[in-house]
Design a protein that fits this description.
11 helices, FAD/NAD(P)-binding domain, alpha/beta, 25 strands, single chain, four-stranded parallel sheet, about 425 residues, six-stranded mixed sheet
Length: about 425
Amino acid sequence: MTAPSPHRVIIVGGGFAGLSAARALRKAPVRVTLIDRRNFHLFQPLLYQVATGGLSPANIASPLRAILKRQKNVNVVMEEVVEFDVAGREVVLRDGVRIPYDSLIVAAGARYNYFGHPEWEQFAPPLKTVEDATTIRGRILTAFEEAEREADPALRKAWLTFVIIGAGPTGVELAGALAEISRHTLAREFRHVNPADATILLVEAGPRVLAAYPQSLIDKAQRTLQRIGVTVRTATKVTNVEPHQVTVDAGQGVEVIPARTILWTAGVQATPLAGLLARAADAETDRIGRIIVQPDLTIAGHPEIFVLGDMAHCKGKDGNPLPGIAPVANQQGTYAGKLIHKRLLGRTVGPFKYFDKGTMATIGRAAAVVDLGWLRIGGYLAWLMWLFIHLMYLVRFENRLLVFLQWAYNYFTFNRSARLITHPNDDR
């Protein structure tokens, strides 16, 4: 008599949710196939530090095979899923291979939303991938190099004008890092231009920066941004983005801002993979393409399909969708893995409940804001908490050690050693 085949679990996406799900299944009688287009897990919250030369990509990325090498029930496949056969319970890869599943976990993340203007992306790159980060790093550093060579004062000012569109945590952190580069890191390195003369504009369509934070922390963040040299423009809507300028409207007529470096950190939407799955499973989506999931994170009518992380519209205790942040994805991945395991044991699990451990954002050197609910602080202590928690969230000890040493070096020397222009800005 042959032994029954183990339960087949496919996980699409090796981000926070997918990796947490795989780890939660380490003791389950299952065979897991983790599929990702990349061979590494990326710690996206620190991607802005790669974009500003503070860290190298390898500091915040870890090979998936290395992370899961001791988990014998996981097989990693580097490929792209292009179709879901929900009736046949198979996923189809770009090379035509079909992989069957008994349970499917889809956690393929999100992308930035250009609000109906996809053509803006070529002029204002997003910050979601390693390639995005190195491209942005090249544009930022090239801007200072071109300003050094530019004799025309107007063109020099345009090269030294940096516009960041979107004042959420990523936009605020990127603006703070740019301020540190221009005021400290590049000091005395140029002969014909002063990097501290750079204009850093943080543009937000809404009335506040860090809109999800309490007003007391928003005020602290805004004061810190102004102190370090960032000009904050709230209630200012971007109406057009062109190669060398941004057009904005603050309610008093349009204004054209000449700028050679424009960066996009505003709004997100689900990846195209969410649309593929929604059509295949006849699932409902929200206005930004996320799949609306049941309390157990499955699709209505398909208890075998889980949607996690940025792809999922999952309501929190207040009835609003949970934010697309790492803690949410981690907890959802762990929940989905445990639920599959408990089902195989004939046991039930209650609905997913997110435990909010708080939110935080760093603003610049020795400055951050932290909202733990019961504790709301800003400044140096908040920055130390931000450092510690982000170190602990890095997947491997090797990454924690490398990032800690790099941060210590950067702090005491004001230097950013990863200032390499690997993607030159040819649009000059």
